[in-house]
Write a structure and sequence with these properties.
The protein has 548 residues and is of the alpha+beta class. 52% of the residues lie in helices and 17% in strands. The strands form 5 sheets. Strands 4-1-7-6-5 form a 5-stranded antiparallel sheet, with helices on both faces. The radius of gyration is 49 Å and the shape is rod-shaped. The two termini are 49 Å apart.
């Protein structure tokens, strides 16, 4: 059962998807993007985990400070029970017994005020509106530092909440800078309620464990996190810079390679002295910016130079060999004529021998031309010469040049050529392409027929169409006519009809004309196809990319 086109497309779809995924996986751009995402995602995940661990550490520190504040408050409570206003200055000594450079203590009080009148309690005492006052500090602090700390506690509402009930041991996480430099962390505030009023014991720490922690500030602002972030960003930037540098270097190599193929990569050998149209060096080594790729760049330069030298050697050898062979062929051909005139016409055997020599010379001459065209085609494939060529002017000039030849063979030409179509190719190679297409059409055209040549713009392509009114090609052979050495001609349809026609120039066909057309067109980034015309004859369509 035959498969429908939709079935074939469905079968090919998984293969195309797999190939696309494989390309994405191997692509350096995809890997660079993936690595960037990893570098972004990893710190986000780690930051969240480390922040949670830091929060647990903060809670342990604060609970430890809170417990310490409770113990000191319980120890001070007996001394505060009988305190009056006159005894307040003497509390510094009592507080100093519990404070040191690591644990700093401040004692505040909000006295109760006796008042008679409306609102007074049965004992005649009501909570006065007075704020908390600093009573003592251990170690001692400057007035500026005390005022700054008291102002911070008021701004945060800690003293207001404590004064309303004078109960509850609250943990703090506030950083207070000192006037002389440095800072300390307020860790807890413990209330002590006596008849004199509401006392508040503030515990603070200036040790490395508290100062370097995230207490009282965002976790990201801690020195450890900032140092880790700086190291990580430097590492990520270095890795991405290395990969991006390699990627940019490979892109430069690709641009230069495309320029060389497109005829925009300098002259002979691609050395450092060559430059493209933008003035950039046409050497891989000069374009390279990664020292580790210097050897690869130099190998590329040597490869380009070798290919160009090989192409030049092939062209030179083709020309020298053709000249070396054609000279003795011409000498032999000229020597045959006197022999023919000297021999009697009735000597059939001698005349037949001379005829065989002439036929062999014709064949040998065709073989020499064939070998030269093959070598030149190989050289064009190794290092195709490319520059901006006005294809419209070239085709119009060549079409006009065939007028006389077509008239001799009772043929005429129809042409329609759009002006201003420019391509990047070799002018001589384009002439060979047009020549092969037109001569192929002429060889198959019957007398009084027309050969049509059209050159039009089709989007970004210049499209050359050559049509004849000959017998066309067997559909089974349409794909084979571009193969090397393939030639299928019937007498009178591209083949000589008799012995006289066999001696005419161009009568020998070796099946390389259309092969050369396809190879050169594909080397220039174009495409060629053949199809039979509905009205009879063959249509050859060549598409070349237009020059930017």
């Amino acid at each position: 059962m035959a498969l429908l086109p939709t079935d074939l497309a469905a079968m090919r779809a998984p293969g195309r998807a797999s190939a696309r995924l494989l390309w994405l996986w191997r692509s350096m751009a995809s890997r660079l993007l993936l690595l960037t995402l990893v570098f972004v995602a990893v710190p986000v995940l780690l930051y969240d985990q480390f922040q949670r661990a830091d929060e647990a550490t903060q809670q342990l520190l604060l609970k430890s400070a809170q417990r310490q504040g409770e113990l000191i408050a319980r120890a001070l409570e007996p001394e505060l029970l009988g305190v009056d206003r006159a005894a307040l200055p003497g509390l510094s000594g009592a507080l100093a017994r519990y404070g040191d450079d690591r644990t700093r203590l401040k004692l505040l009080v909000r006295p109760r005020v006796s008042a008679a009148g409306p609102g007074a309690s049965s004992s005649g005492v009501r909570a006065g509106p007075e704020p908390f006052f600093y009573v003592a500090a251990a170690p001692s602090l400057s007035t500026a530092d005390i005022d700054a700390e008291r102002r911070l506690l008021l701004e945060q509402g800690v003293l207001d909440r404590l004064g309303s009930s004078c109960a509850g041991n609250a943990t703090l996480a506030m950083r207070v800078p000192h006037a002389e430099g440095g800072e300390e962390v307020l860790s807890s505030i413990t209330p002590i309620k006596t008849s004199f009023g509401c006392w508040a014991l503030v515990t603070s720490h200036a040790t490395e464990a508290y100062i370097s922690s995230s207490l009282g500030r965002p976790y990201w602002s801690t020195p450890a996190v900032q140092a880790a972030a700086a190291i990580y960003l430097a590492m990520a930037a270095l890795v991405l810079a290395v990969l991006a540098g390699v990627w940019r270097n490979l892109n430069r190599f690709g641009d230069l390679a495309r320029g060389i193929v497109g005829g925009d990569g300098g002259g002979d050998g691609g050395g450092e002295d060559c430059a493209d149209r933008k003035g950039r060096s046409a050497s891989f080594a000069a374009r390279n910016t990664v020292p580790e790729l210097a050897g690869v760049a130099e190998d590329f330069d040597r490869l380009v130079a070798t290919l160009r030298d090989s192409a030049q050697s092939l062209r030179r050898a083709a020309e020298d060999n053709a000249h070396a062979f054609k000279t003795p062929i011409a000498v032999i051909r000229q020597s045959v004529e006197p022999l023919r005139r000297a021999l009697p016409a009735e000597n059939a055997r001698s005349q037949r021998a001379l005829t065989m020599i002439e036929k062999s010379l014709d064949k040998l001459d065709g073989l020499v031309s064939f070998a030269r065209r093959m070598d030149e085609a190989a050289a064009d494939l190794l290092a195709p010469s490319r520059r901006r060529v006005d294809l419209s002017a070239l085709v119009e000039r060549m079409a006009g040049g065939y007028t006389g030849l077509l008239a001799e063979q009772r043929l005429h030409m129809r042409s329609r050529i759009d002006a201003g179509l420019v391509v990047r190719a070799g002018e001589e190679t384009l002439e060979t392409i047009v020549e092969n297409l037109v001569e192929n059409a002429v060889s198959f055209s019957p007398p009084d027929a027309a050969v049509s040549v059209r050159l039009t713009r089709s989007g970004p392509w210049a499209e050359l169409v050559v049509e004849d009114e000959g017998p066309g090609v067997d559909p089974a052979n349409l794909d084979r006519i571009f193969d090397r050495y393939f030639s299928h001609r019937e007498p009178g349809r591209g083949m000589p009809e008799d012995e006289a026609a066999a001696h005419q120039a161009g009568a020998a066909h070796f099946g390389i004309g259309l092969w050369i057309v396809r190879r050169n067109i594909e080397a220039f980034g174009g495409r060629v196809r053949a199809e039979n015309r509905p009205a009879g004859g063959l249509r050859m369509t060549v598409a070349l990319p237009l020059a930017a």
